[in-house]
Amino acid sequence: MSQYNIEEEIEEIAGGEFERIPVPQSKLKSWKSFLGMYAGEHAAGTEFMIGPLFLTAGVSAFDLIIGLLLGNLLAVLSWRFLTAEIAIKNKLTLYFQLEKICGKKLVTFYNLANGVLFCFLAGAMITVSATAVGIPFDMEMPKLTDTMPNGATWEIIVIVIGAVISLIASRGYDTVSKAANWMSPAIVLAFLACGIVALNQLGVASFSDFWNIWGEGSEPFPGQIKFTFWHVVIWSWFANAAMHVGMSDLSVFRFAKKASSGWTTAAGMYVGHYMAWIAAALLYAVYLKSPEALNFLANGEAPPVAPGPLANNAIGVFGIIAVVLAGWTTANPTIYRAGLAFQAIIPKASTFWVTILAGSIATIAGLFPAFAMQLLGFVALYGFILAPFGAIIVFEHFFHKKYGIIKNYAEVANIKFNKAVIFAWAISFGLFYFISIQFDVFLSFVTLPSWLLCGVLFLVFSKYFQNKNSK
Questions:
Q1: How far apart are the first and last CA of the chain?
Q2: For residue 459, which of 404, 378, 382 has the smallest C-alpha distance?
Q3: Using a CB cutoff of 8 Å and minimum separation of 24, what contacts does 154-157 make?
């Protein structure tokens, strides 16, 4: 038996997730597995929050409808030609791939940051599900400006939902994928139904009526920033920056037979990040005409964004169920990714227990509504922090021969801290974060420049340090 076969057998005994070896040929999956997962994950809990938040940012019809078409196309192209392309070549998780480049000590910092940020995102989705579960209990819904839990009922519901989601995620990729395939058709149907019912409630009888829901845009709600066409394009492109240009989905596409599986992300983008965002915005547009919402606006406050009541108002019990499932289908793979990040830090721990740890952190985060209510800003921040690390993988993969640097240098040189990586990331992050703060530039606008600079600096510093060490 070869060493590879021995390691493969050990991985099977440990849970079969192949965290530290390439996924074997026998375990690769067809495009259908990814189609269900991406359709489910991206027509999910975040969509119930993001659609309404676009309205609070005062977008116009053109900015939203055309901007989302372009931004989501750029996201699909990033997954197909960067993430999936590299994933099928190496068949490694993001975390093990980075360890080979960065070294064990440096990648520990990344894994911790990545895992915690993913837990916060999953926590926001637990919050979304809780707004639906709380309806029969007459639970007070969190407001757009709320940061802390608002009562014992809220806390109990969040904890129960978090426990269930964590157990599903802890059973590995197959279970996560199957759960998405089971739930996603019902969720997609619910979004479509919500959109149709909301159009009827808004009295839309023609395309011009539909267009006029947003019209030329409006002033943003209190505490929100104004979104233009380019805000919509760039934000929708980089809403999943950590996953595509940041290479987190190497951990998913390492199971793919072909790079063309990357096209399945279009199901998530155009069903979820297009149809579902617009449908959720329509639900909120209906609510904004209610006496309760008008009262909030008259008092200079932003009306709350609570997905459960919005969906319940449109399609009743089916809407409540859909919001619960939508939160699950986003939180499940997100907790799974977070568990893999923690697994890289403590490799001797089982996949089950590190995923339970990730789920516990996500549940605690879910108790605090701020992560969900400020989702536009949080998603921009976590993509900005993590995406440049993906540039290191991309630039090394495509340019290491041309620029004469050694691939997987930390592994080859047996070093635990690759200075080229930390210098490249720190300079690009520090420079563009300063620009964002100092000149009040929307953070998503500087994500691409930061990503490109990090990749270029990595090549420059790698050439310098490798030449220096060889001498």
A1: 40
A2: 404
A3: 154/130, 154/367, 155/367, 157/130, 157/133
Structure tokens at 439: 């000149």
pLDDT (0 to 100) of residue 132: 85
Amino acid at site 377: G
Percent of the chain scoring above 70 in pLDDT: 93
Closest CA to 13 of 352, 297, 323: 352
Residue 19 · residue 2 · CB < 8 Å: no
| ∠ Cα 136 142 143 (to 5°) | 135
Structure tokens at 147: 């940061």
Residue with the two structure tokens 């950590």 = 242
At residue 81, what is the residue type?
F
- Asked if residue 5 has pLDDT above 70, the reply is no
User: Tokens 């676009």 — which residue?
Assistant: 54
66 pLDDT above the threshold of 90: yes
pLDDT in tens, 285-341: 998 888 888 888 888 887 888 888 888 888 888 888 888 887 777 777 778 778 877
Closest CA to 334 of 150, 128, 194: 128
Residue with tokens 């149809």, as numbered in its chain:
275
- What CATH number matches the domain at 28-384, 1.10.4160.10, 1.10.3720.10, 1.10.10.2840, 1.10.1370.30? 1.10.4160.10
Which tokens belong to 150?
Answer: 């608002």
